[in-house]
Design a protein that fits this description.
The protein has two helices and five strands, in the order ββαβαββ. It has helices at residues 36-49, 66-74; strands at 4-10, 19-27, 56-62, 78-86, 92-101. It has a five-stranded mixed sheet, covered by helices on one side. The N and C termini lie far apart (33 Å).
Length: 102
Amino acid sequence: MLVGITAVFQSDGDATGASAMLAMSFILPAYRGRQLSRLFYETRLAWVRARPRFRRVLVSARASNAASRRAIERYGFIETGRVPRVWPDSTTEDEILFELQI
């Protein structure tokens, strides 16, 4: 049974190809709190580090998603900015941008 998804890919916003982007992390509520997020981060960061072209990793989170922000910061990401965003559920709230230098 699929209990979560995640992704990592080359960022389209960096013409040099040196930026990776972490995205689409979701874990079913019944499976949260079991350190699956840790596995997601460790696996994605290992994938990035195995590819020397990447010099930085980007990720973002909703301002209200405290759990996501804690996970991001736990892996050494630094906040680089905030932008207002209308989310797919029609709410407007800041998207917090983070970066990790590799």
